[in-house]
Specification:
alpha+beta, 22% strand, 12 strands, 10-stranded mixed beta sheet, two-stranded antiparallel sheet, 15 helices
Length: 389
């Protein structure tokens, strides 16, 4: 069996649709390029192959592959729509399951939308709009690109709803990270509303960087929002207007409630002049090095308990794990494309590969890790024995 045949069969099995149909619906210029149907699987499956680039792949499977660079360069928006054709049906399927589940199953399978960004360092002089970024993990500035991910998590299922390249202010299509998140949430809400789905049972998680008025106000209309307020936010509490740091100082000497090992909390009801009535959970945590740290979580639902807010916010760590998986197993940030269009398209291909991994793990007969799923898909693509369907 050829690689092309095995790739097409695998894509059809996981998505339930033929690759040709998805190509047409995404809006690819198939009428202009006769090679498109024949070679598009390369973009989707490249993260699972042994070769690191199209050049290496073309050495084995045909020189016409090199001509497909222009598809990557010219049609990044089409590749981003291609991601939605994979992610939206799976998201709607999870919403269906959530609506039909009982209370216990809903609590375990509640869908969480997690937003965050990651950075990839680049070395090269010919890359467009390469810019200076602060990497807090290295505590230094790097030259690279910044990617914004909207990750959907339900139980053991986690997949990207969208993966967008953030562009610097010098670019004519510049949008802030918060504008990107607002646009993606609006698009998702519109799609769900057209299908008759409600998002009132879905939780939206983000850190303090995304706790701004435009994002919170938009998410508050449809989601259960759990986030960290910024240090500049002021809340009306016990007749005073206080920042999160001042609230911590105010309750620090009061009796703390036990939350979990080495973690205590205060739950208070407060009011924000823009966000309205919110619940604040002040946490006190003792780290392994005996250092004690304080922080504040905010939720827009008054019936959420402190334990529930704390446990939901801990799920935000899933997005950090998947950034690691995408970089380690799907070659995120390792491409050396020079044109901005190619970089955006390749990012969409990483998102599609991550979606295929999520579908593969969901359809297997036993629970497997992300790494094992990538390994089994790579074996399937290379024409190995049938895997765990």
């Amino acid at each position: 069996m050829s690689i092309k045949t095995s790739c097409s069969r695998l894509c059809n099995h996981l998505t339930g649709k033929k690759l040709r149909i998805l190509v047409i619906r995404a809006g690819f210029p198939y009428h202009k390029d006769p090679l498109l149907y024949h070679w598009l699987w390369v973009f989707i499956m490249l993260p699972f192959l042994d070769e690191d680039s199209l050049n290496e792949l073309s050495e084995k499977h045909g020189k016409p592959l090199r001509k497909l660079y222009r598809l990557l360069r010219r049609y990044p928006k089409v590749f981003e729509r291609f991601v939605q054709l994979f992610s939206r049906p799976l998201f709607f399927e999870l919403l269906n399951e959530l609506e039909g589940a009982n209370g216990t199953a809903q609590s375990r399978q509640r869908i969480k939308l997690i937003v965050d960004d990651t950075k990839a360092e680049k070395f090269g002089k010919c890359m467009e709009f390469l810019h200076k970024l602060y990497d807090h993990t290295k505590d230094e500035y790097i030259m690279g690109y910044n990617y914004v991910l909207l990750l959907a998590v339900s139980g053991s299922v986690a997949f990207p709803l969208s993966f967008i390249l953030w562009l610097p202010k010098e670019h004519p299509d510049y949008r802030s990270k918060n504008d990107i998140v607002c646009d993606e949430l609006t698009s998702l809400y519109t799609a769900c509303d057209a299908k008759g789905y409600s998002l009132t049972e879905v939780e939206f998680l983000g850190d303090s960087a995304y706790c701004v008025q435009k994002v919170f106000a938009l998410a508050d209309k449809a989601f259960r929002v759990i986030t960290k307020p910024g240090n500049t936010h002021k809340f009306e509490l016990e007749g005073e207007k206080l920042t999160p740091k001042e609230i911590i100082d105010k309750v620090k000497k009061r009796h703390w409630n036990y939350l979990e090992a080495n973690t205590w909390y205060h739950r208070v009801a407060a009011h924000h002049h823009k966000y309205g009535d919110v619940v604040l959970v002040v946490r006190c945590r003792q780290l392994k090095n005996q250092k004690v740290i304080y922080d504040v979580l905010m939720c827009n639902k008054s019936f959420y308990t402190a334990v529930r807010i704390h446990n939901s916010y801990k799920k935000r760590w899933e997005i950090e794990l998947h950034f690691k998986y995408y970089k380690q197993y799907l070659n995120l940030g390792k491409s050396q494309f020079g044109k901005l269009g190619s970089i955006r398209s390749q990012l969409a291909c990483v998102a599609i590969a991550a979606l295929l991994v999520a579908l593969f793990r969901r359809q297997t007969c036993r629970k497997i890790s992300f790494r094992q799923a990538v390994k089994l898909i790579a074996q399937e693509v290379r024409g190995g024995k049938p895997t765990l369907y």
